[in-house]
Amino acid sequence: MSAKTPLTLIAGPLGAGKTTLLRGILAGATERLAVIVNEFGDLGVDSRVVRGEHVDLTEIDGGCVCCELAGAFEEAVREILVETAPERIVVETTGVAEPEALALDIPESLPETRVDGVIVVLDGDTMVRYAELGAATRMQIGPADLLILNKADRIPPERVDELKGRLGAINGRAPIIVTKRGRVGTQVLFGVAHDPTPPASGHVHEPTHARVVYETDRAMRREPFERTAEALDPKAVYRAKGFVKLIDGDYLFNYVGGRWELEPFETDRTQLEFIGPRVTAVEHELVQALEACGS
Q1: For residue 84, what are the CA distances in angstroms to 7, 216, 225?
Q2: 103 or 270: whose pLDDT is higher?
Q3: Per-residue pLDDT tens for 169-186?
Q4: How many angstroms from the chain centroid is the CA of residue 248?
Q5: Pick the CATH number of 210-291 from 3.90.480.10, 3.30.1220.10, 3.40.50.720, 3.40.710.10
Q6: pTM to 2 decimals?
Q7: CA distance 281 to 284
Q8: Number of Cβ within a 10 Å radius of residue 210
Q9: Three-state SS sequence of 63-85
Q10: Architecture label for domain 5-189
Q11: What's the chain's Rg over C-alpha atoms?
Q12: Which of 10, 243, 248, 282 has the fewest CB within 10 Å, making it most exposed?
């Protein structure tokens, strides 16, 4: 009997640092990997960021692989196994996914594989600034085999133990690794021994996330764009990401809960996606502000 292909699931809330963790995995990989990226939106931002890492990559966009896109996920895995025969498959789920539903289904629907571990990435900065964790986030934390408390550089040192305690109260068996920019070695991430215990409660999605997409071929001026980013209301726009063509260069844009950054990244046009509970309510003024950034 052939050995089953190990499958590692990466989950966590929007903007926690899942793609950053995945980029680190690919940079340090010593085995042949295949990657499946499941994005909440349609621009394929995360897939494009990862695609430059010389990896066999499959995109599944516009929904969640743990429910409405489960069939597409199974088909993608089977195709990968036949065409590329990787030594491991790494799956980055959408920020609104509950990974245990996927992990529980894999042994039956994909018997050629085994779940090697469920890794959940948490945004430590957001946990410091917002005391309450959403229901979907708690559902992600509960069944995790390994918890990554990310963005440690933005956590006051005296708060680290408190945050670890909050996570431990939800999941007391998973090790907690505190890191910044998702810097964790594959020797820690792989082979974490998945616990197949079913979740205590049913499948939950945060029902309030909507999205607005903005695209333009015009180069933008930096100062008005930065003012627009600073003015984003995290109560309306929790997460934004995409590619920005400024007059002075091309960038990858990331925004989470009031904090944003630009990272040099080649692009031929601006493509931005804004996600949040009230993003459609501010769509008109947001688009106007972005249009005013044009050169």
Answers
A1: 14, 36, 42
A2: 270
A3: 999 999 999 999 888 888
A4: 28
A5: 3.30.1220.10
A6: 0.80
A7: 8
A8: 14
A9: CCCCCCCHHHHHHHHHHHHHHCC
A10: 3-Layer(aba) Sandwich (3.40)
A11: 19
A12: 248
